[in-house]
Amino acid sequence: MTPEQVQPKPSDPPKLYVRMIGPKVGEAKLAASDLADIVARTQQALKRVGQVLYGQESLGKGRKKKDIEELCQLFVVGWEKGSAIAALELAPPPAQLHLFGYIGERSLEAFLKGMALVSDGAQELSALPPGFDLGVLETCDALGRALEHGIDEMTFTSPNGVASQGIVYDRRARESVRRYLARPAELGRSTRVGRIEVLSGHGGITGRLWEPDGTRWNCHFREEHLDVLPDTWMRTVQVTGRAIVEEGKERVLDVDSIVIVSEEREPGYGATEAADFWKSVSLEELIEQQGVVAADDLDAIGALWPADDDPDDLLRFLLAERGEQRKIAAATGGDE
């Protein structure tokens, strides 16, 4: 029985079928690591769509992140015979469904409808579909990494009628996603291409971007970028965000999205800066290179630290994400 022929019961959690086709995909066969990555990226996309749909209200009026994390979680419940088709299922709906609605189902519907619109290269949207923002597009682009591993296309099918005919995600669709990522989201947004160096988690998640002409940007990343940042180091990336340029100060980019342009490490890119990065230097030379000046007002330095910032929150986030990745690896038979 094909996914299109499945008739779910009204009480069943929504199902999502993902079919993979390509030279590295055999009959009912797929690398466990690729399957784990596809499931993880799809789940992350649903959670981010949920955040956009329900998590934007302030003062605690919107849905809590914990609800979105739990109800947008995907479970592998089957593997279809005859071809590489993974059967996925959302977490069970809450008992208060009639009061609050099912965020998992709404996120899945918004994700599939949005993917159908965004991946259509022939159609230019004046605004992103409901539930989509730069973070969702970034995850959709990361989902496309499987297309570099011998998979030509992925088809998403949902028997609930939202995508009964299937939505194809291939290289053409990924290029369309990247075109939207390259467009500034709003006035004041800027897109830059360069190499990422000096990633740091001290005092916030930051990194240094060097453009080909030597222009340097101090990038401030978000927590949701943590899963992709380790792969960006010393690679050429495209970042979009709010640019802050003040005379006499370092250029700053508050990053909304980040996309890896080159999958290869590029030691020859910006050779002068790369040589300085790898070379051991004295403390005096390092101070001169980074333009560090002596602090003369401790109160001013203390005022820069956010009063409500808790470094333990970052640690808890990392541990929770690693725990979810281990669960996915265990469920799909992949490595941790």
Can you tell me about this structure?
The chain is globular. With about 325 residues, it is α+β, with helices and mostly antiparallel strands. It has two domains: about 170 residues; about 90 residues, Nucleic acid-binding proteins (OB fold (Dihydrolipoamide Acetyltransferase, E2P)). It contains eleven helices and ten strands. Helix 1 packs antiparallel against helix 5, helix 1 packs across helix 11 and helix 5 runs antiparallel to helix 6. It has a five-stranded antiparallel β-sheet.
Structural descriptors:
OB fold (Dihydrolipoamide Acetyltransferase, E2P), about 20% strand, 11 helices, 2 domains, about 325 residues, globular, alpha+beta, 5-stranded antiparallel sheet, single chain, 5-stranded mixed β-barrel
Characterize this entry briefly:
The chain is of the alpha+beta class and 336 residues long. Helix content is 36%, strand content 22%. The strands form two sheets. The protein has a five-stranded antiparallel beta sheet. Strands 6-7-8-10-9 form a five-stranded mixed β-barrel.
Note the quaternary state here.
single chain
Record field, number of beta strands: 10
Low-confidence stretches: 57-61, 268-278
Q: What proportion of the residues is helical, as a percent range?
A: 25-40%
Q: What is the radius of gyration computed over CA atoms, rounded to a whole number of angstroms?
A: 22 Å
Query: How would you classify the helix and strand content by structural class?
Result: alpha+beta
Main sheet makeup: 5 strands, antiparallel
The rounded distance between the terminal residues' Cα atoms is: 32 Å
Mean pLDDT: 77
How would you sum up the global shape? globular
